[in-house]
Amino acid sequence: SNGMDSAAPVRWDGLPVGRGAGCVRWIRRDHLAGGSAGIASAPSNDDNVQRTDMVAIVFYNPRTFLRLLERDAAAEARDDYPELRVWLRNVRSSLATRWETRWRSDPETGGGRKGHGNKSAVAGAASSVGNDSSRSTTRIVLVLHKVQEELQRQWNQGGRRRRSFAPTSEEELNDATVWLLIEQHVECTLTSTDEETAEYLANLTRALAEAPYYDDVTELHCVAKLKADSSATTAEEKAKCAWMRQVRQLPGLSEAKARKLLEHYPTLMSLLDEYEDPALTNDEKKCLLEDCMVEGRKAKKLSESMYRLMTSNDPNELIA
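Predicted structure:
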């Protein structure tokens, strides 16, 4: 991880999580660039600072979470949690407008990105779910501290908070956590002690800190990565190996066809000389390779594609 052991959990009071809950977010900086010291006050355009697309919301007062599970009979019949859904919508809206805009991220890969840099980190983002996502790509983890113990306490007392709502049961709690995971892509972790909650957050911090960088996805990521021939030793052999890998980037051109082509045109220059020959017409150049790749059969389409690949002036031209 190149010394990347300096992720800093940052307290953030701007998220509307409600009383009895707190939000933990993470930003990180490479150890060689200064680590986590003073990272919380770093400017948003600091290329060395990177946010991870994950926040943990800790419900240290279990009653705060249980109140979000209250629902009437109609909501229960359609397996919905209206108050929890509205709460999540508000959280995600705040994440999209306040947190994610400070240090930007790549929504396709889900990793945190340096302010204006060209590297990203593996952090994993939750997929957007309908209108509830509010354009947020941040992965949300709920840490439910002593929720099961609070449920047991309420049932022991035999109390019901409001007559219009059914009392929350352990079965309903399990149903809600499954609903959060499937419908909202929100994970839940139940903890029973302060030490267990602290240990979970510490382990999460270390996992995020040690996550490796990955390059931002570009159009070149669709190109097959072919290994170089280790047996090539001379400059000529290495040039031929590079030319072999280059022509194989053409869709449909297999290794066998590429080797056959190189028997006729062993170098890039040898083929370009033919394409630049003024004595040949464009139609003749398009058909130049149709007998050079497949034994006993014409490869007209591949020949034309190779001509377009080598001579096109349009960088956005699609060659298939």
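Summary: The first helix runs from residue 62 to 68.
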